[in-house]
Amino acid sequence: MNRRSLLTLGVSIVTVALPFASALAADYPSKPVRLVVPFAPGGTADFIARVIGETLGRELGQPVVIDNKAGAGGIIGTMEVVRAPADGYTLVMATPSVTGANPAINPQASYDPVTDLTPITIVAAGPTVLAVRPGFPAKNFQEFLAEVKKNPDKYTYATPGVGGILHLEMEYFKSLTGTSITHVPFRGAGPALVAVTSGQVDMLEDALPSSLPSINSGKLIPLVVSAPKRVKELPNVPTFSEVGLAPLNHMSAWGILGPKGLPKDVIEKVNAAAKRAVSDPKVKKRIEDGGGFVVASSPQEYAAEVKELYTQLKKIVADRKLTVE
């Protein structure tokens, strides 16, 4: 399917509404809006949600309540939104795990991100980083790869949960490099990060915004990043492309979606409010200081991104015969 077709599909997704939707949306929002983060506190989705939450609420004219609903790699919280009324009062701060990896690899994810969710906007995007605990017997990527190849199943990697994007990425990494590293899932990126910085688990791939403070404090050793070029925060760390793993060299996007059938007026109001929120200099600076950058996409652009990611990840899962553990 070509890019024009994807964009056309995106328009069809975001403009579907019930016959009485306009009437319901006219006074939206008339009460607080719940923004579900389907992961534990401490990860990048939680960080982005909390950075924009207060300002987004001010722009909407009602408080935005951040609600962490962790479990099953993001599936539990996402399913709350999938099942919620299409009135705009229950939204989700999504990661690529929500919009691609979970439904591509995990049978527990009983939703289709293209048809069961309404894209509103990509708020921000950023690189991921593969990092190891202090004391790991390697300080750069070449040493790391030699060490894990020499010692199959000796080392462990942490993720926010089974079937999430970082689980899938690490399994893909193992497939491409011929390595064997044991998966240790947690209930969110925050607990996974703590497990590595405390030395309980050897490594993780994580979004740069949530890992950067630990890297800067010396609690994590960065080895390689997924970005078009080296990131300014880590100028001495190569990209996946530089180390010969170009298929892994793509960034993560964090965005807001609602249930299917969300009224067009609601989509437009939340999209416009989110764009104003991330244009606030303080909000923009916090996102950029964390290693991300503001996107503020249209609903149609986000719909195209969701479709493209989901299609790509399903193919990777099928080609590599990846399964949840």
End-to-end separation in angstroms reads 32 Å
Tell me the radius of gyration.
19 Å
Low-confidence stretches: 1-21
Structural class: alpha/beta
Mean pLDDT score, rounded? 90
Query: How many domains comprise the coordinates?
Result: 2
Strand order of the largest sheet: 2-1-3-10-4-11
Helical amount among residues, as a percent range? 40-55%
Describe what this molecule looks like in 3D.
With 325 residues, this protein is an alpha/beta fold. It folds into two domains: 194 residues, Bordetella uptake gene, domain 1 (D-Maltodextrin-Binding Protein, domain 2, 3-Layer(aba) Sandwich); 121 residues, D-Maltodextrin-Binding Protein, domain 2. Helices cover 44% and strands 18% of the residues. It contains twelve helices and eleven strands. A six-stranded mixed β-sheet has the order 2-1-3-10-4-11, sandwiched between helices. Strands 7-6-8-5-9 form a five-stranded mixed β-sheet, sandwiched between helices. Helix 1 crosses helix 12, helix 3 packs across helix 10 and helix 5 runs parallel beside helix 12. The two termini are 32 Å apart.
Quick tags:
six-stranded mixed beta sheet, single chain, D-Maltodextrin-Binding Protein, domain 2, five-stranded mixed beta sheet, alpha/beta, 12 helices, 11 strands, 325 residues, 2 domains, 18% strand, disordered N terminus
Give me a quick take on this structure.
This protein has twelve helices and eleven strands.
